[in-house]
Design brief:
3 domains, 7 helices, SH3 type barrels, 24% strand, alpha+beta, Pdz3 Domain, rod-shaped, eight-stranded mixed beta sheet, single chain, four-stranded antiparallel beta sheet
């Protein structure tokens, strides 16, 4: 056994030398890598120091400028901080963080009856518009109004959002009033309120010859109606044709006709010296029939317009204060 070990001992020595050489090579490579890293790290601080010095010089400039400015008093600074904090908290909406606080309306807008009045106008309009009637529904957006444009001689039915004339839009119809929006703000048109007369130009006043008005102050064209009594009237045919050709001209004088529960149409809103008053109609009268044909609804009233074109005599049955009255109208 001893002889065998003696013969193979060179193998053990070879393995030992190989292991020592491997360890020595690993240690040498680690030392070389450490030396390279240390050399690189020694070069980096130099560049970093140069950049750092430049940054320090730039950072010093705001400090120097701040030091040169006068410092505010401590009490004033605290007051401003409190005001800024209160303003921020007052305008913050936790349910809508991105919303911008609304700006309160100024005194000029309030004086014009603008949006600060809750969407409804309080200032009467100066436009030549007359409100003839309103039809108010349960839904405000479905309400309608009949408006007569005195300046243009046009009558129309308008709802919410409709434009009466350029730049004049209906915003609401309620309580016998119409709220409109124009460039100066929100304005109001009330039922039965006549618009202000437009001022004529000086040249027109000098050139135009004033028309002769009747003594009662009514429309001169109404002289075409002559009534000997409450039951007998004579109307010129040319006047009837003028009404049928241009009904808008006499729309302001037209009374309101409402369906009566017992049948016929109840007359309301008869004005003095108007077309209806000239014919002898009074508030509260109920039109029951024309030439013996009962007025049961709107279709019968529309059919009456066609008869007026060729009729020479009309017999109108009227109920006044519970009594029946027969009125005869001759067209010639």
């Amino acid at each position: 056994m001893h002889a065998l070990l003696h013969r193979r001992f060179w193998v053990i020595r070879f393995l030992g030398v190989a292991m020592v050489s491997a360890f020595a090579g690993s240690a040498a490579s680690n030392a070389l890598a450490l030396a390279i890293v240390d050399g690189t790290a020694a070069l980096l601080p130099a560049a970093g120091d140069e950049a750092g010095s430049e940054d320090e010089e730039l950072d010093d400039e705001p400090a120097i400028a701040a030091a040169a400015q006068p410092k505010p008093r401590a009490g004033l600074t605290r007051d401003r901080s409190r005001q800024a904090a209160a303003s921020t908290l007052g305008g913050y909406n936790p349910f809508c963080p991105t919303c911008v606080p609304s700006t309160p309306a100024g005194p000029e807008l309030l004086a014009q009856g603008g949006p600060a009045s809750g969407g409804l106008a309080t200032v009467p309009t100066k436009l030549p518009l007359r409100l003839s009637a309103t039809m108010e529904a349960e839904s405000p957006s479905a309400s309608l109004a009949t408006i007569y444009d005195v300046e243009r001689g046009v009558v129309g039915v308008y709802g919410v959002g409709d434009e009466i004339r350029a730049g004049v839009v209906v915003t609401a119809v309620e309580g016998g009033r119409v709220h409109i929006r124009r460039d100066v703000g929100l304005e109001l048109i009330e039922l039965g309120v006549a618009p202000e007369p437009a001022a004529a130009k000086p040249t027109e006043q000098a050139a135009a010859k004033p028309a002769d008005k009747p003594k009662d102050g009514g429309d001169p064209s109404l002289d075409a109606i002559q009534c000997a009594s409450d039951r007998e009237c004579v109307v010129e045919r040319a006047f009837v044709e003028e009404i049928l050709a241009n009904p808008a001209k006499f729309a302001a004088q037209a009374p309101r006709l409402m369906p009566a529960p017992e049948g016929g149409f109840k007359v309301a809103g008869v004005r003095k010296n108007s077309l209806a008053s000239k014919l002898g109609l009074k508030n509260g009268d109920v039109l029951l029939a024309v030439n013996g044909e009962a007025l049961g609804g709107l279709d019968d009233a529309i059919g009456l317009v066609t008869k007026l074109r060729r009729a020479s005599n009309l017999s109108v049955t009227i109920e006044r204060k519970g009594a029946s009255l027969e009125k005869h109208v001759e067209i010639r």
